[in-house]
Amino acid sequence: MDFKTEFKPITVQPQQIEGKSFEIIDQEIGPHSFTKEQYPIVQRVIHASADFELGKRLLFHPDAIRAGIEAIKNGKKVVCDVQMVQVGISKPRLEKYGCEVKVYISDEDVIEEAKRLNTTRAIISMRKAVKEAEGGIFAIGNAPTALLELIRLVKEGEAKPGLIIGLPVGFVSAAESKEELAKLDIPFITNVGRKGGSTVTVAALNAISLLAERV
Amino acid sequence: MDFKTEFKPITVQPQQIEGKSFEIIDQEIGPHSFTKEQYPIVQRVIHASADFELGKRLLFHPDAIRAGIEAIKNGKKVVCDVQMVQVGISKPRLEKYGCEVKVYISDEDVIEEAKRLNTTRAIISMRKAVKEAEGGIFAIGNAPTALLELIRLVKEGEAKPGLIIGLPVGFVSAAESKEELAKLDIPFITNVGRKGGSTVTVAALNAISLLAERV
């Protein structure tokens, strides 16, 4: 069989591929107790990871979706822990509302301050972010240290995020940081366990900006 | 307990966190048949995903590691399908050998040509890449269409990659594209199934550049 002919019909229409993917997810996800508002986020996280276990272990604060949509509609900043999250996020929908997508981890002053205090750039970047992005959405996909520092700043009254999407991945501190996040009574989206990462964090944020456009 | 005190010891030393993570992976991975050369790539993929199933289903062409190291040492280009892969890749190690990390999907000429031919930018970006990056490493973490096009170009003699890291994720074409890659007799790293993505593709590439530095 000629290779080109074999694959062409299924590869050239990205919108069709996405629709077909969502159909497969709907068919295979099985029983769950997510609300109608939460489900599009679950669906996109599974789409980005091909991992039902990860998607089905998402946890939502009851106000998470509403708060995320509101932050976007009010043009609040989106703060990312790492550049991979920043570049993955769909910009046009956010720019319509005046939302900027920021990452502070490579800023000169963050690097300097981290050296001075002998700590991580992830931690210092959160200290800078909470000053510059009050009411914003914090999308943490990589660094548990960033999430733990953000949680500390919230507890100490130094941070007032609109929504925290906390989905860092890893074997040390990641699951623990997300457990701590899930104890807060502020809007959050997180998950249970070690899994997570930049791609699923991007998926969750993009799902919310799609909802913002629709409501 | 004071929050700061509780978490500080485990969060401020990134090198320690990585070492501890690798220990946990070694303890939990169980039986496998990866070679000594392949294992560091498996380890970093699991580290980036917290997913043993994904890591243990990696497939290596017998020449993959050697060819990847050689491409880096010869200063060949690293081509990424999407910007998330490009920004995630550690640059300093590659720059030592003169390797550039490229992504063509948002180039003006790629966008124009995709419109003209009514096809995807991912496909056209691979057509451009194979002309500009002969002998390079192709790191495909997102778009099955990019991988399928690259495979086609290899089969038709229009592409001579040094190594293909093909780990796209998804429900439509991703698993199939990787099955096709695994049939080629050229250096590849891929996996079985739907899982994959930008973060694990970055992890595989970074593992190889670390090996290049060590041998």
From TrEMBL, chains A, B:
UniProt keyword annotations, A-Z: Cobalamin biosynthesis, Isomerase
Enzyme Commission code(s) on record: 5.4.99.60, 5.4.99.61
Residues of the signal peptide: none
Pathway(s) where this gene product acts: Cofactor biosynthesis; adenosylcobalamin biosynthesis
Ranges for domain Cobalamin biosynthesis precorrin-8X methylmutase CobH/CbiC: 16-208
Pfam families assigned: CbiC
InterPro entries xref list: Cbl_synth_CobH/CbiC, CobH/CbiC_sf
UniProt-recorded Gene Ontology molecular function terms: cobalt-precorrin-8 methylmutase activity; precorrin-8X methylmutase activity
Family, per entry: Belongs to the CobH/CbiC family.
Protein name listed in UniProt: Precorrin-8X/cobalt-precorrin-8 methylmutase
Species: Aeribacillus alveayuensis
